[in-house]
Amino acid sequence: MKPTLQAVADAVGVSRSTVSNAYSRPDQLSATLRERILDAARQLGYPGPNPTARSLRRGFVGSIGVLFTSQLSYAFTDPFAVRFLAGVGAAAERHGTSMLLVPLPPAVTDARRAVENAAVDGFCVYCVADEEWALDVIRQRGLPFVSTAARDDAGADERFVGIDERAAARSVAAHVAGLGHRRVALLADSVLPDAPAGPLTVAGVDQVPHPTTRGRLSGFADAFAEVGLDWAELTLVNVPGNSRPAAAAAIAGLFDQPAPPTAVLAGSDVLALGVLDALAARPAHDRPAVSVTGFDDVPEAAAAGLTTVRQPAEEKGRIAAELLLDPPADAAAGHVLLPTALVVRSSTGPVPRS
Amino acid sequence: MKPTLQAVADAVGVSRSTVSNAYSRPDQLSATLRERILDAARQLGYPGPNPTARSLRRGFVGSIGVLFTSQLSYAFTDPFAVRFLAGVGAAAERHGTSMLLVPLPPAVTDARRAVENAAVDGFCVYCVADEEWALDVIRQRGLPFVSTAARDDAGADERFVGIDERAAARSVAAHVAGLGHRRVALLADSVLPDAPAGPLTVAGVDQVPHPTTRGRLSGFADAFAEVGLDWAELTLVNVPGNSRPAAAAAIAGLFDQPAPPTAVLAGSDVLALGVLDALAARPAHDRPAVSVTGFDDVPEAAAAGLTTVRQPAEEKGRIAAELLLDPPADAAAGHVLLPTALVVRSSTGPVPRS
DNA sequence: GATCCAGTCTGTATCGATACAGAGACTAGC
DNA sequence: GCTAGTCTCTGTATCGATACAGACTGGATC
């Protein structure tokens, strides 16, 4: 068994408090005694104060949780999520805080338990799907958190960092509409829970549960409404999961229909890249000239020439962690909207006249 | 203040133990009492057992640390590290364990403290630079760990997952040597601590402190020795930090020298991609036909047509975590060598005759 | 010579749970 | 009717530290 602080105290002949002070409050004892204590500790093989015991007594842990409301392994697959993590990491580094990545089991009961059991001082919640239950647990625990998806029921005091999803989506859709496209497909991840891959009819965009997806789809719809296109005239395509192959599979059939879309607006770059994959997979002579747009501007987008909306991924993570670790006194400052920018590249062009 | 387990016990009129059991050992009490307890807990707003207190009493935490002996933010920049993390994450997910990413302050004393204070049950050590001090701290704490770099002084009982760096490097170098290249530059990260960027003279490859770098350089040297080229005849180029821009900057000047290298063997794909960047940055008419090889086969390498050595990144992370979380009874099984494969793409070719 | 003070160190209470032995109550078996 | 065994639940000890109030020492101050 590893020696405890008590053992060191006994060896030196001082009280536990003094040994504790030798580690945590060097100004509370003389330098010589401190040296004697540290020497004895070294000799005994004392590894220093037990982090868990220390956390218990102190009342804080020194690490923040990052919650992906999805498989943890997904987080490392999505380049946007990776940049976000990098941002969180940079802020954590600055604050001398660790990051705890908590994998969530598929069953909600187990997932709740996982969030309840995480030894952290707060959470950055990266929203992939509906995360209301997770926020409930966190509130219940009385822990601070920062979320990255606008929610309908957000309390005024809840911290948030994100973008104006709707306006950003509108900007890229307006670009596409401006190019003359009127047969348009909108591609999004998990439009409705458990919906199958492929075209999907949804009465109105307000039926879409996930706020981020809803926001982006609304923005797309806004831009086309302005050129006289109804929601019902847009083709909505569901992708179960934000991945290139899933997107490619979901979109593939669409191009063989009678009046195929001339433009595909994807809810993320990953999905858009999947669409490009699907197109590239067709023989050159049978490859329709489709305009494709993404969302996020991940590193891969530039290489693929993807027209997209840029949002600062790393910044988002960094600010999320900063809001958590160093909360602004002013509640309004806890609500950060980041700028976005339309990035036009080669993946969009005018409607081919055929 | 949040209510404690005691408060719930008092409210229901049972002992603390029983409430504890209601959460952690449901089979130890009747279903009806358990329901009463959980109801009361809900009513009081009891958030469930405090994770820290539970860890202290139980003697384990339920999370593993991932240690990058470099800036944490670096980890998210290096695509190989990200794949490694994904693998660790997948294994952690399977075991219901969290991952703690511990940022290390630049000063070694502070870094030691950070490792001492991490509340984890063990470490996966991803070796970027010299990490002996970190392993010392972990040993001192009596925690299990898995390292990913072969070390000279590894105890027989210490777990490890990695590749035969030397043999793998040799395979790609043999390919280059086979193409006839004899004016060759070897590019590596942090060949010597604090060495400047650019060509560097090192008496022998055994002078290189970092085992991974040394292993790869040795492999390169092996292959060229076989075709009669001495270590001294190879140009060694140091890059301070494993990044594309750093590599580009370190190599840039080399191509303007009297007898420029016809091949550059990089110690990692990231460095190799940096070399390609440096070449691409030159005007087309002044762009030497240089063969470039990498190491790792990160996702970006395929797109760039980079000849490289593949090592299974995700697998490495997954196995590292598995070895930690589910240690094999047999000590020998704790030492895993992964397969590697030479991947020849378009970035290498025969020496241009001119 | 009393007072004050800064500098050191100690002792006790506490952080919030879980482990484990064991006490009662009840059912079974013979 | 007695022993054994099963279910529930309780009580005490313990995990390993830190906080905080206070005790002691030895000068400096007036």
TrEMBL record, chains A, B:
Alphabetical list of InterPro entries matching this protein: HTH_LacI, LacI/GalR-like_sensor, Lambda_DNA-bd_dom_sf, Peripla_BP_I
Listed SMART domains: HTH_LACI
A Pfam family the protein falls into: Peripla_BP_3
CDD domains reported in the protein's UniProt record: HTH_LacI, PBP1_LacI-like
Database matches in SUPFAM superfamilies: lambda repressor-like DNA-binding domains (SSF47413), Periplasmic binding protein-like I (SSF53822)
Domain HTH lacI-type: 3-58
Gene3D superfamilies per the UniProt record, alphabetical: 3.40.50.2300, lambda repressor-like DNA-binding domains (1.10.260.40)
Keywords, alphabetical: DNA-binding, Transcription, Transcription regulation
GO molecular function: DNA-binding transcription factor activity; transcription cis-regulatory region binding
Keyword Transcription set for record: yes
Official protein name in the record: Transcriptional regulator, LacI family
Source organism of the structure: Micromonospora saelicesensis
